[in-house]
Specification:
Layout lengths: L13 H74 L7 H9 L13 H8 L9 H17 L3 H15 L5 H17 L23 H42 L4
Helix pairs in contact: 1-3, 1-7, 4-7, 5-7
Length: 259
């Protein structure tokens, strides 16, 4: 009868299991640290990228505001010219000048369209949390709120434009305007590219405008004053927006070392 002898392995000490657990724990912990550092780096890279595009947006806003301020100042000078023509009844002998002013309507709506691509991504995507620097995030929010608040005045521009057009129609003959712009319209229709707007009205040298009734004259002059007053306020608002855009751009450039 055979006797089987069972071999017995030496029992491992508790310290062996402790070191195995410790090595496993360290491996998991190091993996967690590596993943955390990777996520941290990705977020920092995204933050820097957002600030680079934000700087581009602010530069674009400043350039647009400079053009808008210049356009508003030009419109106000045209308003002054038209006001003088109407107030002194010179429009009766210088009708051509009234039509020339109409060529680039000074009562038309001038709007500021901010470059808000980055701000929309920050707000809508919940990415404002990526902006670690509180002074920068506060500055961006302040700029965004200021721009949106100033846009609340745009409906007033539309209302005044509608009112003033009703009274300008009593001065201007649509047949003269159509004839004066026909050549430009034909040129644009025949072209595959945008044609220059310069000289788009070919006006006759002598244009007669019928005399306005005193009531209509006073109403028109009143609206001209209102539009001028509104444009002056818009210039101040645009200058405030430009100043805030410049300050925000300087802060972003400094904090994130953006040239």
């Amino acid at each position: 009868m055979e006797v089987h002898h069972h071999s017995h392995t030496a029992r491992k000490k508790w310290t062996h299991y402790f070191w195995e657990f410790l090595m496993l724990f360290l491996a998991v912990f190091c993996g967690f640290l590596a993943e955390y550092q990777l996520e941290h780096k990705i977020e920092r890279d995204r933050e820097k990228q957002f600030m680079q595009t934000m700087a581009e947006d602010l530069k674009s806003d400043t350039a647009n505001l400079n053009r808008l301020i210049k356009s508003r100042k030009s419109r106000i000078r045209e308003l002054d010219t038209l006001f003088h023509l109407i107030a002194t009844d010179e429009y009766l002998t210088n009708g051509r000048k009234v039509y020339e002013l109409y060529e680039l309507p000074y009562w038309d709506i001038l709007r500021f369209f901010p470059s808000d691509r980055t701000m929309q991504q920050l707000k809508n995507g919940g990415n404002l949390r990526l902006i670690r620097k509180k002074n920068v995030s506060n500055a961006l929010i302040k700029y965004d709120i200021t721009v949106r608040n100033y846009k609340e005045y745009e409906p007033l521009q539309q209302e005044l434009a509608t009112q003033i057009n009703q009274h300008l129609e009593k001065l201007l003959d649509p047949l003269i305007i159509e004839k004066a712009t026909r050549a430009f319209a034909e040129k644009q229709l025949a072209a595959d590219i945008i044609t220059s707007r310069s000289g788009r009205m070919d006006l006759p040298s002598d244009i007669t405008i019928l005399k306005l009734a005193d009531t209509d004259k006073k109403i028109l002059l009143k609206y001209l004053i209102q539009v001028k007053t509104l444009y002056l306020q818009h210039i101040r608002d645009n200058m405030s927006e430009r100043k805030l855009a410049d300050e925000t751009l300087a802060l972003v450039s400094k904090e994130y070392n953006i040239n």
